[in-house]
Amino acid sequence: MARLTREDWIAAAYERFSADGITAVAVEPVARALGATKGSFYWHFADRPALVDAVLERWRELETEHLIAEVERIRPASARLGGLLELIAHRTGQRSGERTLYADATGPVRDFVSTVTERRVSYLASLVAASGVAPDEARRRAVIIVSAVIGYQQLVSSGWDAASDPRSMVDTLGALATGTTTPVA
CA 152, CA 33: separation in Å to the nearest integer? Predict the structure, then answer.
């Protein structure tokens, strides 16, 4: 058997996070999934919090920074708000690890989640402001939209079948963002 890398451990832990949330990121179940010993884990990580940190960093990178980079490539810039809302709507069902993250976050995890949330709110507020909304109002709308997306994720992950109509979510969030009923995408 090939020697496991730190990346192997993070990938396996991220799979558990994606399926069952941050509380599922534990050494023994990840080791079992990899067919490895806890000794292999301790070769790469000091403890479970170090693994959780790595998983959260991957979540931040994939679900925030990667998304922002993708949106920043949209031309013209005026189409970015609609593009972001489209991406969010179509990825809701894929972001299952996040569905309980806000409720389960305590201590350093809460601090990390708070930092990521601020990044998301600030970025969204900049897009809303670019659509002509005053900066203070843009931030208030961004907070509401981020909150709505988190709630929407929880509804979808609980089995509610709203994911079959992501267009209505995009239109509604766009109306919240811009204060209009005209679709932003």
Answer: 30
Across 93-107, 129-143, 158-172, the highest mean pLDDT is recorded for 129-143
Which amino acid is residue 173, in one-letter code? L
Question: What predicted TM-score, i.e. pTM, was given to this entire model?
Answer: 0.90
Decide if pLDDT at 163 tops 60.
no
Residue 184 in any domain: the answer is no
Residue 1 lies in a domain: no
Task: Give the structural domain span for 72.
Answer: 6-178
Percent of the chain at pLDDT exceeding 70: 91
Number of separate domains in the chain:
1
Q: What is the pLDDT of residue 58?
A: 97
User: Taking residues 146-151, what's their average pLDDT?
Assistant: 90
CB contact burial 17-52 (16+ within 10 A = b; e otherwise) = bbeebbebbebeebbeebebeeebbeebbeeeeebb
Task: Write down the H helix ranges in 61-157.
Answer: 66-72, 80-91, 101-104, 107-130, 135-157
C-alpha dihedral (68, 73, 79, 84), degrees to nearest 10: -20
